[in-house]
């Protein structure tokens, strides 16, 4: 298996984009938990998903965020969906945007998929609101 050159431009762009979307703390936690087993996977998503797709300039991060949330919800990948809902604050995607994405999921991927995702998204919003309220006291 080819070793990822951690100094190549696509990997570096991917790491920067990943941090800007998911947050530096999230990426630091992910990197701290990397093992020999999942390192190739982490390198793949950093270079491939974040460096090749998320780093493109045709769509904004907000647009990519909405599409990603809708796809993850439609496919039933609820944990990843929740992570990207949290990250939406960093991309400019609003709660209204996410609600509209869920309506699209309901029509194009099915009401059960949207319903499951909406339950999780509401919990994520509740957690985020509690975190903000706790930080203001």
Overall description:
With 137 residues, the protein is mostly helical. It has two domains: 1-58, no CATH class; 59-137, AhpD-like (Up-down Bundle), CATH 1.20.1290. It is 78% helix and 0% strand. It contains seven helices and no strands. Helix 1 (9-22) crosses helix 2 (24-32) and helix 6 packs antiparallel against helix 7 (111-136). The radius of gyration is 16 Å and the shape is globular. The termini are far apart. The model has no long low-confidence stretch (mean pLDDT 94).
What are the salient characteristics of this protein?
137 residues, mainly alpha, AhpD-like, 2 domains
Give the biggest beta sheet.
Answer: none
**Helix segment tally:** 7
Which word captures the global form?
Answer: globular
Oligomer kind: single chain
Fourth CATH level, the homologous superfamily of the largest domain: AhpD-like
CATH class call of the largest domain: Mainly Alpha
Query: Termini distance?
Result: 51 Å
Content-based structural category: mainly alpha
According to DSSP, the number of beta strands is 0
* Portion in helices: over 70%
CATH architecture of the largest domain: Up-down Bundle
Q: Runs with pLDDT <50, length 5+? A: none
The helix-strand sequence is: HHHHHHH
Strand content: under 5%
Describe how the helices and strands are arranged:
Blueprint: H1 9-22, H2 24-32, H3 39-53, H4 61-75, H5 78-91, H6 95-108, H7 111-136
Q: Would you summarize the structure shown here?
A:
This protein is mostly helical and 137 residues long. It has 2 domains: 1-58, no CATH class; 59-137, AhpD-like (Up-down Bundle), CATH 1.20.1290.10. The protein has helices spanning 9-22, 24-32, 39-53, 61-75, 78-91, 95-108, 111-136.
